[in-house]
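Hey,

Quick one before I head out. I ran the complex with manganese (II) ion overnight. Inputs first:
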Amino acid sequence: MLEEADTIELERPQDQLIRRLCATLSGYLDQNQINDCIRAYEFGAAAHAGQFRKSGEAYICHPVAVAISLAEMRMDASGIMAAILHDVIEDTPVSKKELAKEFSVEVAELVDGVTKLTKIDSKSHAEAQAENVRKMFLAMGKDLRVIMVKLADRLHNMQTLGVMTPEKKRRIARETLDIYAPIANRLGMNNIRHKLEALSFEAMYPLRYAVLNSAVKKARGNRRKIVDIIESAIKNRLEQAGLRGDVSGREKNLYSIYQKMLHKKISLSAVFDVYAFRIFCDEVDTCYRILGVIHNLYKPIPGRFKDYIALPKAKGYQSLHTILIGPYGVPIEIQIRTHDMHRMAESGIAAHWLYKSDDDKTEKFQARANEWLRDLLEIQKSAGDSLEFIDNLKVDLFPQEVFVFTPKGGIVKLPRGATIIDFAYTVHTDIGNACVSARIDKQLVPLQTKLENGMTVEVITALWARPNPLWLNYVITAKARSSIRNYLKHFKQQEAINLGRRLLEKELQVMHLHLESISETRIKALLKIVAKQSLDELLEDIGLGNKMPFLIAKQLTQDDINANIKLNDSDHIKKAPLVIKGTEGMVVTLAKCCRPIPGDSIIGFFNPGKGIVVHHHECRNNNEVRKKNTSWLDVEWDQNAVGEFPADLRIEILNQRGSLATIASTISELNSNIENVTVVDQDDRVCVDLITLTVKDRVHLAKIMRRLKELSIVLKITRVKA
Ligand code: MN
């Protein structure tokens, strides 16, 4: 007796807890893994030495308690170790590096993840952004074990609120209801969710809780007799039918009773009017047979039967629900499900932690999370229902978004890969336009820094600052992109107009003219031809290099010449697509001597009465033309130049029967037409042909030449440019 009392006195609370943890772990981990957990405990206890909980217990009791609740859900060894160590980075001098060295990178990463979540916790005080905080949590807990540890951590903190001021309790309870309970719900972990809700309810409304609690206890006591009668009636009937099923009375939790009373505005007795039972069995088939037996025992209320096995509810909840009229006319609510379905309903994602085998180390936790989703998908598929809820869940679990804080604690949501510039424009266009640098978590960083979940971003602006065109390479949000473009456009526009005016005046000067001396009607006529609304628009186009000032000057002054061309050829001009940039309303001819095609470097000559003749830059005729004609132009192909452009190929082929046919069919296979073939030279062995074919552009021609070269009959092939 005395001895026993001594040992009880000597045993500290933490000793008791670690013993309980090991006992639970031995149910599913091997001895080596348990030893690792004990090592983590010893390490953690040493790190937290001298720290105490408000209750007066050694601090290490808290993380061990957290580990116990995770062990009850069969969390793997690394997760248990992380739970035991979850506060050391935050509250002791131990670093992530040390943890990695002492245990494993995996454990260190998990603890680091929990620490980051804890930091968010303290930052996000605004209730209004609960949804974003929840998303941020899920986004940050890339490894879901991090979120599990955090949930268990919060559960234990709620269980030990103890001596805090009511106000502080309420604040923590509110946060638990806003953030943690919904996350548990989203992961299908109803067990934790209900515990969190009940504890929060108690902390927020201690009086209501006490009243409701005692009322419920009393009601339960009064009902005991009827519950027993119903329970044994069901058990007997199942036995008679030879069906194996475990019957248990179902107690609604206080928070959901409270919610029901609050939202449906009904009294406690009305909530308690219903007697609820659950029946668990092993096979899906048995569920339906039990249902039949039960419907035979008591009369079901029409329209109240729900088959959630065939048509599962969100997150894969499966069960049969029915309501019966029991003895004395009391309504009985019955849920029938397999043990597996129950496990899924209670533990959700955690139901997949069960180890399949000990050497299963390669299996990653995330894979199990995916497995969970896959299971849901399977259930959903067999139900033939919409897949929408899975999609929602996926988005929640693996978000494509990052969540960052403003300096004031607001949360900004951005797509993954967004930079500080995106952030700045998301906050406000003016901030984006004036940003010069930024601080992330108080550290100065460049603007192109990519954002990560949980960062606090402070943008530094300057009055003189202007958006930089290079930023377009660093932004991914549509708003930032269009804002930058917009700014640059407006800024550039005036400059381009000024430049265009100067260039045009210069050309006019050669003709001893000024822009002012040109009549309004003439300008208007030209604007119509080039499809511009105003002179400024035309000048801007000149400034941006889209129109040639020389040609515009010519069109403005020599319209008698152009008029002739237009009269003869007006239809043609209208219909023909623009081939050379900035030549709207002009006649453009591609020189026959060198046959330029889009993609070639080219040069143009303005020929009064003929319009513009375009030559290949390497055309031999150029030198002569240049000597004669001073009006040569630096021209460019229009971006959208389309058509069939003739090109000349000189080709040496084996002089044998069918050679030319092979060449012809190869060319036509590549969507080109042969316009002309001339035999230039031939002997017994070789034949030299000059082929004129049509192509879309240089790339097209290159493709044809490459293909022809591959033919065994082709000896040599060259393009002819005059
Ligand atoms: Mn903690």
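Confidence is low (pLDDT under 50) at residues 1-5, 354-365, 383-395, 561-575.

Talk tomorrow,
K.
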